[in-house]
What does this fold into?
Amino acid sequence: MPTIEIPSSLLPGDGRFGAGPSKVRPSSLTDLAATGTGFMGTSHRKPGVRDVVARLQGGMRELFSLPDDWEVILGNGGATLLWDALTFGFIENKSQHLSFGEFGSKFAKAAVAAPHLSDPTIIESAMGEHPELVTDEAIDTYAFTHNETSTGVSMPVVRPHGSTGLVAVDATSGAAGLHWDTAEADLYYFSPQKCFASDGGLFIALASPAACARIETIGASDRWIPAGLDLVTALDNSRKNQTYNTPALATIFLTNHMVEWMNDNGGLDFAAGRCATSAAHLYGWADAHAMATPFVTNPDHRSNVVATIDLDEAVDASVVSQVLRANGIVDTEGYRKLGRNQLRLAMFPAIEPDDVVALTACIDHVIAELAS
It folds into this structure.
C-alpha cells in the first residue's frame, strides 16, 4: 500500500462511514457511562430498564407518527432472526418477495426453506435496480427491503394495488433515514445498528392492528412455533415494556438516546433531511467526477443512507480504502459479494453532512496522489 498522508485540514471530524454498524455518537456513550450502576447490570424486568424500553417505544411512536393502535415490538436476535420468526408466525401460506440485494434474498430463502409454507413468489431484478410488487390474490404477505444495504438501492414503501395481503418491510438500514407512510405497510421492522447508531442483536417491529391480528391468529393455530421465534410471546412482552429473554441493555439505551436526539431536533424530517443533504453532495460529486460514478444509475433508486460509488479501473478502490483507513477514515470498502471496484459509504443520521463533504475531498486527494 502506498504511503499517502491526507492533510489534517481535509480530514472529517469523525472518520466512521461504515454501512453497519454505524458510527455511534460519542455523547451517547458518555451518557451511557454516566448511568453508573443504575442501568447496566440491573434486571430487565424491573423499572430501571422497563422505563427505558417504554421511553424507546414512545420515542418510536413519535418519530414515525404511528397511529395509536400500532404496537412497537422488541425482541432479541436482530432482523436476521426475525425473518425466521416471520416464516413461523406471520406468513399464513404464501408470500411474495422482492429480491434486489443480499438481504431481501435472505428472507426469500427462509420462506423457500419453510416446509409448512407454499413456495413463495420471488421477483428479482439486476443489482443496482429494484423490481415492483405484483398484485396476486394468492399472496398473503408481501415482503421487500426499504433500503438494500448491499447495493445502495432504496425503494418506496407502497402497497400493491388492490391486494388484501399484508406488507412486511425490512427497514434495517432505512428506518429513520427515509420517509414512509404507515398507510402503506403493516409491519416495518429493523435492527438499530445503522440509522439508530446503536449496536446489533435487537429487532424492533412496528406493527399495525392487522399485523398484530395475524400474529395472534397464527399463534392460536396448531402450527408448531419454536418458543424463541414466537411472535405472540414477543408481542405480549413488548406490551409490558420488556423482551422475552434478557436483551443487551447498552443496545436499548443507545437506541433510545438516538431516538430522543432525533425527536428533540425535529423528528423524522430532521433525521431524513440530514441524510438527504449528505446524499445530494455525494451523488453530485460522483456524477461530476472523471473517475467516479454512482453504481445505481437511476437517481430515483439511489439510497439516501448508503451510497455505492464505482471507481474507474485506473483507480483501485481497495487501495483507496486502505489509504483512507490509514488516515483514520474507516469502513469505506465495497460490499464483497458485489465484487466491484467500488466504495460503499454510509450517510446515516449520526454522520455529519459536513463530514461527508470532507470525505469526498479526502477521496479526491488520494486519487490524485495515486495518479502522480
